[in-house]
Design brief:
Blueprint: E1 2-13, E2 23-38, E3 44-51, E4 54-62, E5 68-73, H1 76-89, E6 99-105, H2 115-127, H3 131-138, H4 144-149, E7 155-158, E8 165-168, E9 179-183, H5 190-199, H6 211-221, H7 225-243, E10 257-261, E11 269-274, H8 278-287, E12 293-295, H9 296-300
Parallel strand pairs: 3-6
Antiparallel strand pairs: 1-2, 2-6, 2-7, 3-4, 4-5, 7-8, 9-11, 9-12, 10-11
Helix pairs in contact: 1-3, 2-3, 6-7
């Protein structure tokens, strides 16, 4: 049996701006998604996606035509499109011989940590094709999620095709004991969200986006939490002015620290930094209705997450 592993991800800073040519700070997580492959099926592709005991997708395609032979659950069309885009680079991929493909999430898929990008990355490595080109055709976006799937530590990312520019960050994050990730409970469908943003792109002031690079450099160079708080404020205000949304910090005006959106604003996870003890921060967000609050190390370094 052949297998591949793709890391989950977070984009810490540079969301939206990375689509306009600026850098983004990308953080691969220890958890992710496994792809287990058995090359035993003649002319059939058996596709399964699971998390714990939950089967999220389970269907069978004819290998040559990709005709749906049996659809038990899930979205066969997305899988068919993915394979077709892979075949643009590798026309023989899974045509003559079938395979059993089992994608095993180690984190809840509703958390928005990159289930789709993990699937794309693993299958493209199996097919020996360029995942950035496939992702551009299938999902759009910056491709930063794809870069995270094979990275080991945080890095700077700049969008480009056929290959992005990636720079490893040589230092460690200075404030892991003061940084928390909170699940909002509001899943964002990334591809659709980006399409909606693109519709209003003519309203953006593209000359402003490069300013994000300055905030990113300041964030990486900051040596104190008060400095970091100021940088987060400036970054949030700039992004808000460009996408016409209010920063998430508006919802937590009494929080002793700073709160920052991550990825698509209004969904998935957000980040909080505070000088208060971890117990205080967790109690604060729990009282606000957010019961999934993780300290940096407990989130970033976790191998897997239960369904509870």
């Amino acid at each position: 049996m052949e297998s591949f592993f793709s890391h989950a991800k977070l984009i810490l800073m540079g969301e939206y701006a990375v689509l306009h040519g600026t850098n983004a700070i990308c953080l691969p997580l220890k958890t992710g998604q496994k792809l287990e492959i058995k090359n035993t099926l003649p002319r059939e592709i058996n596709w399964k996606w699971s998390f714990g005991q939950n089967i999220l997708a389970d269907f069978t395609l004819e290998s040559e035509s990709l005709e749906i032979k049996e659809a038990r659950t899930g979205n066969p069309q997305w899988a068919k499109d993915l394979i077709l885009f892979i075949r643009k680079q590798n026309p023989s991929f899974l045509r003559e011989k079938g395979a059993s493909l089992h994608f095993v999430n180690l984190f809840p898929p509703e958390w928005g940590l990159g289930s789709s990008s993990a699937t794309i990355s693993s299958l493209c490595r199996f097919a020996e094709v360029n995942p950035y080109l496939v992702n551009e055709q299938l999902m759009g976006g910056s491709g930063a999620d794809i870069a995270c799937t094979t990275a080991e530590k945080w890095f700077l990312y700049r969008r480009a095709l056929p290959e992005p520019e990636i720079w490893q960050i040589p230092t460690e994050f200075l404030f892991p004991e003061n940084t928390f990730f909170i699940y909002s409970g509001q899943k964002q469908e990334t591809a659709g969200h980006l399409r909606n943003i693109a519709k209003t792109e003519s309203n953006y002031n593209n000359a402003v986006w490069p300013e994000v690079d300055k905030f990113i450099l300041r964030f990486l160079a900051a040596s104190t939490l008060p400095e970091t708080f100021k940088i987060i404020d400036d970054h949030e205000l700039l992004i808000a002015s460009q996408i016409q949304k209010q920063p998430i910090g508006i919802l937590f005006k009494d929080f002793p620290g700073k709160v920052k959106s991550l990825g698509a604003w209004g969904g998935d996870f957000f980040m909080a930094l505070s000088q208060q003890p971890a117990e205080f921060v967790k109690n604060y967000f729990s009282k606000k209705g957010y019961d999934k609050v993780f300290l940096w190390k407990d989130f970033v370094n976790a191998n897997s997450f239960s369904e509870k």
